[in-house]
Protein backbone atom coordinates (compact mmCIF):
# COMPACT_ATOMS: atom_id res chain seq x y z
CA UNK A 1 0.00 0.00 0.00
CA UNK A 2 1.47 3.30 -1.11
CA UNK A 3 -1.37 5.76 -0.42
CA UNK A 4 -2.98 6.19 2.99
CA UNK A 5 -5.15 8.63 4.87
CA UNK A 6 -4.66 9.65 8.49
CA UNK A 7 -7.19 11.26 10.80
CA UNK A 8 -7.85 11.54 14.50
CA UNK A 9 -11.00 9.96 15.91
CA UNK A 10 -12.66 10.37 19.28
CA UNK A 11 -12.91 7.21 21.32
CA UNK A 12 -14.46 9.26 24.13
CA UNK A 13 -15.11 12.82 23.02
CA UNK A 14 -13.06 15.37 24.91
CA UNK A 15 -10.99 12.74 26.70
CA UNK A 16 -9.65 9.86 24.60
CA UNK A 17 -8.52 10.07 20.98
CA UNK A 18 -6.88 7.71 18.53
CA UNK A 19 -5.19 7.94 15.15
CA UNK A 20 -7.00 6.16 12.32
CA UNK A 21 -5.02 5.00 9.30
CA UNK A 22 -7.12 4.09 6.28
CA UNK A 23 -6.59 3.07 2.67
CA UNK A 24 -6.67 6.20 0.52
CA UNK A 25 -8.48 4.47 -2.36
CA UNK A 26 -11.32 2.53 -0.73
CA UNK A 27 -11.27 4.11 2.75
CA UNK A 28 -11.17 0.86 4.72
CA UNK A 29 -9.51 1.03 8.12
CA UNK A 30 -5.96 -0.30 8.20
CA UNK A 31 -4.90 0.54 11.75
CA UNK A 32 -6.10 2.33 14.85
CA UNK A 33 -3.28 3.73 16.97
CA UNK A 34 -3.57 5.09 20.51
CA UNK A 35 -3.36 8.86 20.99
CA UNK A 36 -2.97 11.61 18.46
CA UNK A 37 0.44 13.01 19.38
CA UNK A 38 2.25 11.46 16.40
CA UNK A 39 4.57 9.07 18.29
CA UNK A 40 2.71 5.82 17.51
CA UNK A 41 2.14 7.04 13.93
CA UNK A 42 5.87 7.62 13.43
CA UNK A 43 6.66 4.05 14.56
CA UNK A 44 3.92 2.63 12.33
CA UNK A 45 5.22 4.55 9.29
CA UNK A 46 8.80 3.33 9.87
CA UNK A 47 7.58 -0.24 9.57
CA UNK A 48 5.52 0.62 6.44
CA UNK A 49 8.14 2.46 4.43
CA UNK A 50 6.46 1.89 1.03
CA UNK A 51 3.97 4.67 1.72
CA UNK A 52 4.46 7.48 -0.82
CA UNK A 53 1.34 9.64 -0.30
CA UNK A 54 -0.50 10.60 2.90
CA UNK A 55 -3.78 12.50 3.05
CA UNK A 56 -4.07 14.08 6.49
CA UNK A 57 -5.68 16.83 8.51
CA UNK A 58 -3.90 20.01 9.58
CA UNK A 59 -2.41 18.57 12.79
CA UNK A 60 1.26 19.52 13.11
CA UNK A 61 1.99 16.34 15.10
CA UNK A 62 1.03 14.22 12.09
CA UNK A 63 3.01 16.43 9.70
CA UNK A 64 6.22 16.16 11.72
CA UNK A 65 5.79 12.40 12.30
CA UNK A 66 5.39 11.81 8.56
CA UNK A 67 8.34 14.08 7.67
CA UNK A 68 10.61 12.33 10.16
CA UNK A 69 9.60 8.75 9.34
CA UNK A 70 9.20 9.16 5.56
CA UNK A 71 11.05 12.26 4.34
CA UNK A 72 10.22 11.63 0.66
CA UNK A 73 6.51 11.11 1.25
CA UNK A 74 4.03 13.57 -0.30
CA UNK A 75 1.58 15.03 2.21
CA UNK A 76 -1.77 16.39 1.02
CA UNK A 77 -4.84 17.71 2.80
CA UNK A 78 -7.73 15.28 2.97
CA UNK A 79 -10.85 16.37 1.13
CA UNK A 80 -12.64 17.59 4.27
CA UNK A 81 -9.77 19.86 5.27
CA UNK A 82 -9.16 20.90 1.67
CA UNK A 83 -12.77 22.08 1.54
CA UNK A 84 -12.36 23.80 4.94
CA UNK A 85 -9.31 25.67 3.62
CA UNK A 86 -11.13 26.64 0.43
CA UNK A 87 -14.16 27.93 2.34
CA UNK A 88 -11.89 29.90 4.67
CA UNK A 89 -10.19 31.61 1.72
CA UNK A 90 -13.54 32.33 0.07
CA UNK A 91 -14.87 33.91 3.28
CA UNK A 92 -11.78 36.12 3.45
CA UNK A 93 -12.30 37.24 -0.16
CA UNK A 94 -15.96 38.00 0.44
CA UNK A 95 -15.12 39.97 3.58
CA UNK A 96 -12.68 42.12 1.59
CA UNK A 97 -14.90 42.64 -1.45
CA UNK A 98 -18.39 42.89 0.04
CA UNK A 99 -19.75 45.86 1.96
CA UNK A 100 -20.39 45.22 5.66
CA UNK A 101 -24.15 45.43 5.13
CA UNK A 102 -26.39 44.88 2.13
CA UNK A 103 -29.92 46.25 2.02
CA UNK A 104 -32.57 44.75 -0.18
CA UNK A 105 -35.84 46.55 -0.79
CA UNK A 106 -38.52 45.38 -3.20
CA UNK A 107 -36.10 42.82 -4.66
CA UNK A 108 -33.40 45.39 -5.44
CA UNK A 109 -30.10 46.09 -3.70
CA UNK A 110 -30.16 49.50 -2.02
CA UNK A 111 -27.28 51.69 -0.89
CA UNK A 112 -29.05 52.82 2.27
CA UNK A 113 -31.15 51.12 4.89
CA UNK A 114 -34.85 51.16 4.11
CA UNK A 115 -37.04 53.22 6.41
CA UNK A 116 -39.06 51.23 8.86
CA UNK A 117 -42.75 51.96 8.72
CA UNK A 118 -44.49 51.11 11.95
CA UNK A 119 -48.17 50.29 11.72
CA UNK A 120 -50.14 49.98 14.90
CA UNK A 121 -52.62 47.18 14.70
CA UNK A 122 -55.49 47.23 17.14
CA UNK A 123 -58.41 44.85 16.97
CA UNK A 124 -61.89 46.22 16.57
CA UNK A 125 -63.91 46.76 19.73
CA UNK A 126 -66.61 44.35 18.59
CA UNK A 127 -64.03 41.60 18.33
CA UNK A 128 -62.86 42.13 21.91
CA UNK A 129 -66.46 42.20 23.15
CA UNK A 130 -67.18 38.91 21.39
CA UNK A 131 -64.48 37.20 23.45
CA UNK A 132 -66.46 37.65 26.70
CA UNK A 133 -63.25 38.40 28.51
CA UNK A 134 -63.49 39.15 32.23
CA UNK A 135 -60.37 40.63 33.77
CA UNK A 136 -61.79 40.85 37.29
CA UNK A 137 -59.93 38.98 40.05
CA UNK A 138 -61.52 35.73 41.22
CA UNK A 139 -63.75 35.89 44.29
CA UNK A 140 -64.98 33.33 46.81
CA UNK A 141 -68.72 32.71 47.40
CA UNK A 142 -68.78 35.61 49.87
CA UNK A 143 -67.39 38.04 47.30
CA UNK A 144 -63.92 38.28 48.83
CA UNK A 145 -61.02 38.53 46.36
CA UNK A 146 -58.93 35.35 46.23
CA UNK A 147 -55.22 36.09 45.91
CA UNK A 148 -53.01 33.52 44.18
CA UNK A 149 -49.30 33.25 44.71
CA UNK A 150 -48.50 30.72 41.93
CA UNK A 151 -47.33 28.13 44.42
CA UNK A 152 -48.52 24.57 44.51
CA UNK A 153 -50.84 24.08 47.47
CA UNK A 154 -51.82 20.94 49.28
CA UNK A 155 -55.56 21.40 49.72
CA UNK A 156 -55.65 18.61 52.30
CA UNK A 157 -52.98 20.11 54.54
CA UNK A 158 -53.86 21.12 58.10
CA UNK A 159 -52.89 24.72 57.37
CA UNK A 160 -55.19 24.98 54.36
CA UNK A 161 -58.08 23.33 56.23
CA UNK A 162 -57.64 25.81 59.11
CA UNK A 163 -57.62 28.78 56.71
CA UNK A 164 -60.76 27.51 54.99
CA UNK A 165 -62.60 27.26 58.33
CA UNK A 166 -61.46 30.78 59.22
CA UNK A 167 -62.80 32.12 55.91
CA UNK A 168 -66.14 30.40 56.53
CA UNK A 169 -66.41 31.91 60.05
CA UNK A 170 -65.60 35.39 58.73
CA UNK A 171 -68.16 35.14 55.94
CA UNK A 172 -71.04 34.30 58.36
Give a brief rundown of this model:
With 172 residues, this protein is an alpha/beta fold.
Just name the CATH architecture of the domain at 3-81: 2-Layer Sandwich
* Approximate strand percentage: 15-25%
Overall form: elongated
What is the highest CATH level, the class of the domain at 3-81?
A: Alpha Beta
Low-confidence stretches: none
CATH topological fold name of the domain at 3-81: Nucleotidyltransferase, domain 5
Number of helices: 5
Task: Give a verbal description of the structure.
The structure is a single chain. The protein is of the alpha/beta class and 172 residues long. Among the domains are: 79 residues, Ribonuclease H-like superfamily/Ribonuclease H (Nucleotidyltransferase, domain 5, 2-Layer Sandwich); 34 residues, no CATH class. A hairpin with a 5-residue loop joins strand 2 and strand 3. It is elongated.
Write the layout of secondary structure elements.
Elements: E1 3-12, E2 16-23, E3 29-34, H1 39-47, E4 53-56, H2 60-69, E5 74-77, H3 79-97, E6 103-105, E7 108-110, H4 125-130, H5 158-171
Parallel strand pairs: 1-4, 4-5
Antiparallel strand pairs: 1-2, 2-3, 6-7
Keywords:
single chain, 172 residues, alpha/beta, Nucleotidyltransferase, domain 5, five-stranded mixed beta sheet, two-stranded antiparallel sheet, 7 strands, 22% strand, elongated
Amino acid sequence: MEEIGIDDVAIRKGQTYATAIYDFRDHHLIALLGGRDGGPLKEWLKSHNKVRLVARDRASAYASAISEALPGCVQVADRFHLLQNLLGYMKDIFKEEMPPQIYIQDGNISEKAPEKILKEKTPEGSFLESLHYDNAPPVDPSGNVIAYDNKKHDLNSAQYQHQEKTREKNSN
